[in-house]
Amino acid sequence: MSAAVDNRTRPAEQAVAAATLPRGVTTGHRLRRILLAMWVGMRPMLVGYWIVMLVGFLIVGIGIKAATGGIDHSTWDYGTQSPKYFSMAVGIIITTAYLTLLVAQGITRRMMSVAVSIYLTGAAAATAVLWVLVYQVEHLIYDWQGWSQTLANPHLFTRTSQVGLIFAEFFLLILSHEVAGWLLGITFVRFGFWRGVLLLPLSLIPAAAAEFLLVAQWLADVLNGLGYHRPPLAVAVPSVLVVSALGLYAGYLVLRPMAMKQAKG
Fold it and tell me: Secondary structure of 189-247 in the HEC alphabet?
C-alpha cells in the first residue's frame, strides 16, 4: 500500500520540484543564454564582415564605377560568392570556439546542437535579408543615375525586384554552407586532421547539394555548360532544407559520443 501511494505521489512531487527550480536552470533559460553567448561572441566577426562587404562592394564599388564613366552591371552582385564561404568559416569556428567551453559549464551536447542550429539559421536569414536590402538600395541609386543594374551572375532571380527569390537563394546557400562548416569543425575536432581530411566529401554534402539543386552564381555557368540544369524550385528548395536539417542532425550524432580533452597545464 505504501509503495502504491509513493508511486502516485512521485509525479506530483517531481512537478512541484520542477516548478520551483531556480530560473537559471530551466532548459529555455539555458538555451537563451547560450544563444546570447553565441551572438555576443560571433557578433564582431559577422557584423565586421557585413560592414566590409557594404563598404567594398556598394560604396567603393559604385564610386569607382561612377568615376570611370558609368556602370553597366550591379556592383553588389560581384560580391555574391563571398557570403557562402564566409558562412562556412562561421560554421567551423562555432564548434572550436564554444564546444569545450559550453560542455565544461554543464551544457549537454544536444542543447548545444539545438543552439547552433538556431544560431546558424538566424545568421543565414539575417545575411539574406541584408543582401535583399542592399540590392534594393542599389536599385534606387541606379534608377536615380539612369544606370543599368544588369546582374553579373546567374541567379534564381532575374530582377532585383524579385525579393522572395533573392532571399530564398541566399538563405539556402548560406545555411547549407554553414552546416557544411559545422560538420567540418566537428569532424576535425573529433577525428583529427587526417581523418577529417578523409571525411571532407561527407562533410561538404550540404553545400554541394545546395549548389547542384539551386544552380546559381558562378557554378551555374559551369553546370549549364555540361548540360545540367536546375530541377524545379518546388523540388530544389525543400530538398536543400531537408539536406541542411539532416546535416545539423548528423553533426549532433558525431558530437554526442565525443569526449572532451583535458586542459593542459
Answer: HHHCHHHHHHCHHHHCHHHHHHHHHHCCCHHHHHHHHCCCCCCCHHHHHHHHHHHHHHH
Among 244, 240, 245, CA closest to 216:
240
Extract the C-alpha cell encoding 10.
512521485
Distance CA 95, CA 185 (A): 6
- Could you tell me if 211 and 121 are in contact, meaning their C-beta atoms sit under 8 angstroms apart? no
What single letter denotes the amino acid at residue 25? Answer: V
Q: What is the pTM of this model?
A: 0.85
| Distance of alpha carbon 100 from alpha carbon 198, whole angstroms | 24
Q: Which three cell numbers stand for residue 250?
A: 548528423
Comparing C-alpha atoms, which of 176, 197, 191 is closest to residue 248? 176
Q: How far apart are CA 235 and CA 213, in angstroms?
A: 8
Range 119-154 burial, b when 16+ CB lie within 10 A, else e:
bbbebbeebbeebbebbeebbebbeeeebebebbbb
Distances (CA, A) of 80 to 14, 155, 234: 53, 10, 23
In the chain, where are the structural domains located? 26-255
The rounded percent of the chain whose pLDDT value lies above 70 is 87
- Judge whether 135 and 169 are in contact, CB under 8 Å: no
- Give the single-character DSSP code of 160: T
Question: What is residue 258's predicted lDDT score, i.e. its pLDDT?
Answer: 77
Return d(Cα 184, Cα 186) in angstroms, integer.
6
Cell of 131: 543582401
In sequence order, the 6+-apart residues with CB closer than 8 A to the CB of 147 are 70, 71, 72, 141
For the chain, first and last CA: distance in Å? Answer: 57
